[in-house]
Amino acid sequence: MERKVGIIGAGISGLLACKYTLSKGYTPVVFESRSSIGGVWTKTLETTKLQTPKPIFQFSDFPWPSSVVEDFPSHSQVLDYLQSYAHHFGLLRHIKFNSKVLSIAYEGPPEEEMQAWELWGGAGDPFGSKGKWNLTVNDTHNLSTEVYIYIYDHISYFIYILAYFSADLCDFSPCSSTC
Hints:
Elements: E1 4-8, H1 12-23, E2 27-31, H2 75-88, E3 95-96, E4 99-107, H3 111-115, E5 132-139, E6 144-151, E7 157-160
Parallel strand pairs: 1-2, 1-7, 2-3
Antiparallel strand pairs: 4-5, 5-6
Cofactor: FAD
EC number: 1.-.-.-
Pfam family, one: FMO-like
């Protein structure tokens, strides 16, 4: 049985989530609202540099290229590094670009049942085994909308990557109906 994972965002955390889920045998789909990877790095000024020395801002399994000699790489060097990482580990084929998540809805047991301790105790199965997540995704390139369903009973999940400065975040609270 295919084990699917939906990941929202192809920034640094989304790339890591994609690589990790692949390593655990899952089939990830990364929904990226823009046409490229990089998250907040796609929205910063071109004069921006890392504020953390590059040895600390480095994937543990993917060193910076030797051509980057600066301790604080530039905006374009960071984006190139992220692109190289995604290419090296074959992550790009799992990314749906120009795919903005409009809504996330959980359909499952009533809230009272979800509050019950047994749902979390021992088995590690949040929301029981009868729920599903519906992700409504807008293809910003051809302006179509599609609903992706992740059924918990079929070992499917989604991961929401939260970026503080993201302008593309929707309000997914139960009281909100729009982005």
